[in-house]
């Protein structure tokens, strides 16, 4: 049986495999809301410019509303023979309302239709994801405010470097997520042009009011070039690039959560709600949610690379290749959304072991830089010299099996005679973090201020 929507010039139906490879209904059903929104706007415009009657428009609008209810209720008879969501809905409309349904596609092609639907879908996804990013930022800012003065070891090369505060560390992720929001906003701004009304590729001879459909669908303007309008998928790529960068940020935090939960660290503890057990090792409490957030980054990055690869080398204008744009975007949006939710949950759930973090913050000669800075500030040694002297003191402490504050004044003076007992005041963790008051530094006063700023901005 030939396709009822385009089968006029065909004598026979597709082979089973042709139908299977061609159909997208299994995944583009997800676009049903956007497809109906787009069709309602198109029909209203057709009536407004006098291409269809007001009566037909009413029948179309009623029919589409009934179909929306049918889909919502899970009672819509989706069929693979009708390929995609657009033809499934249009065929059903004609089945219900007759001739008027057949007029809906006037001056429209599935090429501008799908480009419009997909933009609407991505725009809706952006709005939902932005709200989720904000929620995670709030969770982080709240914890940062509570731990603005609690020290933890800061690392470079994952080696103990200098003490920082736990609040400062959490706010680093708030900065990253704020940039992710900026990328989402940028992407939304650029995608917000409406392809509807350019038809297949060349535009149409019907006197369509493209400004009207663009405005009705919340777009800023109609797309200016018909060829570009049907073939551009930059908006999907920008969305995926934003998703990939943000998923990478979540993955870094997830990796830290995994490290912080591990037995040698035990900086934080996740409750039963965010951990799982082992089927053989009774003692285990595994941070699976964090591991899965870390892993889902792979799918999101894969989606970006996958769609870039689909798009490269496609001649203008539409080619069926672009039907492959949807699954990566749906999958990446879902993975990103779930990761954001899981991460917000973990951030709110975790219990930091403040005493243990403070302990570790002071170990590993973490305040060696403070000692060198003291030599520069008080004894006026050149920094390079101070660095060398401090290095000798670290070696002496290491040989003695103590931390820097475990050296006696005499032992210190053996390396640098000018050292006085005052030096011990800069070797504590609290003195170290408190001294880092430069803008952007980890001093508790700074961190409290930044956390409050974010809490207010996100409220
Ligand atoms: N399902 C198709 C897609 O997602 C709709 C557009 C079909 N257009 C065409 N000329 N065959 O791209």
From TrEMBL:
Q: State whether keyword Membrane applies.
A: no
Entry GO terms, CC: cytosol
SUPFAM superfamilies named in the record:
L-aspartase-like
The answer, when asked if Protease is one of the entry's keywords, is no
Q: What Gene3D superfamilies is this protein classified in?
A: Fumarase/aspartase (C-terminal domain), Fumarase/aspartase (Central domain), Fumarase/aspartase (N-terminal domain)
A GO term for molecular function: argininosuccinate lyase activity
Instruction: Provide one Gene Ontology biological process annotation.
Output: L-arginine biosynthetic process via ornithine
Q: According to the UniProt record, what class of enzyme is this?
A: lyase
Q: Which Pfam family, giving just one, matches this sequence?
A: ASL_C2
Reactions catalysed according to its record: 2-(N(omega)-L-arginino)succinate = fumarate + L-arginine
Query: Keywords for this entry?
Result: Amino-acid biosynthesis, Arginine biosynthesis, Cytoplasm, Lyase
Q: Do you know which PANTHER family this protein is assigned to?
A: ARGININOSUCCINATE LYASE
| UniProt-recorded name of the protein | Argininosuccinate lyase
Species source reads Rhodovastum atsumiense
Gene behind this chain? Answer: argH
């Amino acid at each position: 049986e030939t396709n009822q929507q385009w089968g006029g010039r065909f004598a026979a139906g597709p082979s089973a495999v042709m139908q299977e490879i061609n159909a997208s209904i299994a995944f583009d059903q997800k676009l049903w809301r956007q497809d109906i929104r787009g069709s309602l706007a198109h029909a209203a415009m057709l009536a407004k410019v006098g291409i269809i009657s007001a009566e037909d428009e009413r029948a179309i609008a009623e029919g589409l509303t009934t179909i929306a209810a049918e889909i919502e209720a899970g009672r819509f008879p989706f069929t693979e023979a009708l390929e995609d969501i657009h033809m499934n809905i249009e065929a059903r409309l004609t089945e219900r309302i007759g001739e008027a349904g057949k007029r809906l596609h006037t001056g429209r092609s599935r090429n501008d239709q799908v480009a419009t639907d997909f933009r609407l879908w991505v725009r809706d996804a952006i709005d939902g994801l932005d709200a989720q990013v904000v929620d995670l930022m709030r969770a982080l800012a709240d914890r940062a405010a509570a731990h603005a003065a609690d020290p933890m070891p800061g690392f470079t090369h994952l080696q103990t470097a200098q003490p920082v505060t736990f609040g400062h560390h959490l706010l680093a992720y708030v900065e990253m997520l704020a940039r992710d929001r900026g990328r989402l906003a940028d992407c939304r701004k650029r995608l917000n042009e409406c392809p509807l009304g350019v038809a297949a590729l060349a535009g149409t001879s019907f006197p369509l009011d493209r400004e009207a459909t663009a405005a009705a669908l919340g777009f800023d303007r109609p797309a200016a070039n018909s060829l570009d309008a049907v073939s551009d998928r930059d908006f999907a790529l920008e969305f995926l690039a934003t998703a990939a960068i943000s998923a990478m940020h979540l993955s870094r935090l997830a990796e830290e959560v995994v490290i912080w939960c591990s037995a040698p660290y035990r900086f934080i503890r996740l409750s039963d709600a965010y951990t799982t057990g082992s089927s053989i090792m009774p003692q285990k409490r595994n941070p699976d949610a964090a591991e899965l957030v870390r892993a889902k980054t792979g799918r999101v990055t894969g989606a970006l690379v996958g769609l870039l690869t689909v798009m490269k080398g496609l001649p203008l204008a539409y080619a069926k290749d672009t039907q492959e744009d949807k699954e990566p975007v749906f999958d990446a949006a879902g993975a990103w959304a779930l990761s954001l939710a899981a991460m917000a949950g973990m951030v709110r759930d975790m219990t930091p072991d403040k005493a243990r973090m403070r302990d570790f913050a002071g170990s590993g000669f973490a305040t060696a830089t403070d000692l060198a800075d003291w030599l520069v500030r008080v004894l006026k040694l050149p920094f390079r010299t101070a660095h060398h002297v401090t290095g000798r003191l670290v070696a002496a402490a290491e040989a003695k099996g103590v931390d820097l504050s475990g050296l006696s004044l005499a032992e210190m003076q053996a390396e640098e005679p000018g050292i006085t007992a005052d030096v011990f005041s800069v070797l504590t963790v609290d003195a170290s973090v408190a001294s880092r008051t430069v803008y952007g530094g980890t001093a508790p006063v700074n961190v409290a201020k930044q956390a409050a700023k974010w809490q207010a901005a996100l409220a």
